Amino acid sequence: MATNQLSGLVSGFDWKTFIDSTIEYSSAPITRLQSEQSKNSSKSNALSTLDGKMTVLQSSINALTDSTSFYSRTAKLSSAATTWSAAAGTGTAIGDYKIAVTQLATASRLRGTTDIATGISASNDVSGITLSTMPLSAPVTAGTFTINGNQITIDLADSLQDVFDAISTATGGTVTGAYDSTTDKITLTGSGGPITLGAANDTSNFLSALRLANNGTATVASSSSLGALPQTTRLDAAGLRTPITAVDGSGNGSFTINGVEITYNTTTDSLKTVMARINASSAGVSASYDAATDRVSLINKTTGDSGIFISESSGGLLGALGLTASTVERGKNALYSINDGPELISATNTVTSGSHGIDGLSLTVGATGTDTVSVSGDTAAMKSKINAFISAFNSVQSFIEEQTKITSVNGKVTAATLSNEREVQSWSQTLRRNAFAGIDGLDSTISRLEGLGIDFTSGTNELTIKSQSTLDAALTNRPDDVAAFFSTSSTGFAARIKASVDLIAGTDFGKGYIDNQLTKITANNKSIDDQIAAIQRQLDQQRELLTASFIAMENAQQSYNNMQTQLTKAFSSTSSSS
């Protein structure tokens, strides 16, 4: 016999709707459990958010336990217009330091003799000396120059004698020029009164290059010898007055400066390459050439009263440069005093604790004189840490307040997510109590937050800076006391707050109260999942049983109807036959 799956087709009773209603009514426990699970999830989310805020608070507290920033210092000079600069390191003693500098440090110097190069000509005859090849400190430029109002035009291909002739021609023979190889100077001689050199529209530097300047007389001579050593010409062809002989057959020689050997080759090296070699060495000196005086100098790279020691064989390069015949000009040490104390000595113009003994204080002076350095706490770094703590603390407190409050509006009571969690409310009170309490046992003038101008906002558990001036004064003038208040190990403010927060939020070494709460909620939700699954299995079984029963009823009803139809037909047939 075929079964009928259509609900009520035979019986006329919609049993499927009946089953759905029955199962829905029986599902009420699942709905209650799901509601409980939803509340648990909301609590879990709220606690996770609180845990994040606690982590931020922990970080701000850890920053307070590091006392480094509380010992940061600033140094300020009393004079705004000064060539001095000052700096103070971590932990420098706070106070004012009167600095009086009576002598600046200078570097030792060894100056060679002047006029180390031969003159511009070996004889007084300069007809073969062209302007372009004269070994001068400043090369001559082509153009015009003026003598007694007469303009002379020159070209670089002209010889020096050509220029003398042009001067004589332009001035009608009243001014003549001559070169003296003995003095390596040019002399202009006038026969008609004082010589006047130059004009505003001159285009050649001939007069300045030959060191000729007005003196109000009829005779003008070069102010100094003219010849200069060409720095890029190889040494054996540079025209040194004193020849270099202390070299081997290939031109190799050497010398020492402060015990450091410097080598050279007269056939390949120039004065420029040798000086560069000296400057790049570890000898600790700088070599330079002054074309105006035709002289090489060595100067220590560091200041202070210290020597320069040179050595070479007779006939070497240093001798040719006039350095071995010179005496070292000893440098000077800086001389100064602090707070009218005894005279102190520094080899450099940057005086540090190495000479004055004040840890962390450094002063660079650019002139003699007196100034005052004021060392105070670096409030910026300290303020940043304190403000970060207050912000994190208030974020935790305001969140707990928001999540635990119960409000009533027009008789309608609304409870926040964590309103039934008394433990969460107690965390807020613990934090407030520990923040408010004093710190015992400190050798400090600050034992409470209010000593820093910090207190609770009235009617709340949140902190605020009520007196910025009090905080600034403490950070500026008593940073050590502030550091002791916040950072003292085990008993300081930060340590006490940290202990409470660590219990709530946990650490890398163990779980806190929040973790335990979250674990309980997770376990509870897992248990609810299991209960819902068990109830659902029962409901599924109940649906199957009810469905099977009603199908059986429908089938039985169908069988009864079929039998009745057959009987009716049978009776009807019998009746017709009779």
Walk me through the structure:
With 578 residues, this protein is an alpha+beta fold. Among the domains are: 73-105 and 333-377, no CATH class; 138-221, no CATH class. 38% of the residues lie in helices and 19% in strands. The chain has a five-stranded antiparallel beta sheet with strand order 1-19-3-15-16. A three-stranded antiparallel beta sheet has the order 2-18-17. Strand 15 (334-338) and strand 16 (344-346) form a beta hairpin. Helix 2 (28-65) runs antiparallel to helix 13 (513-577), helix 8 (379-404) runs antiparallel to helix 9 (422-436) and helix 10 (468-477) packs across helix 11. The longest helix is centred in the last third of the chain and has 65 residues, at 513-577.
Distance between the termini: 34 Å
Identify the quaternary structure here. Answer: single chain
Strand content: 15-25%
Low-confidence stretches: none
Helical percent range?
A: 25-40%
The gyration radius over C-alpha positions equals 52 Å
Report the sheet with the most strands, covering strand number, pairing sense and barrel closure: 5 strands, antiparallel
Main location: secreted
Pfam families: FliD_C, FliD_N
Protein name: Flagellar hook-associated protein 2
Domain Flagellar hook-associated protein 2 C-terminal: 331-562
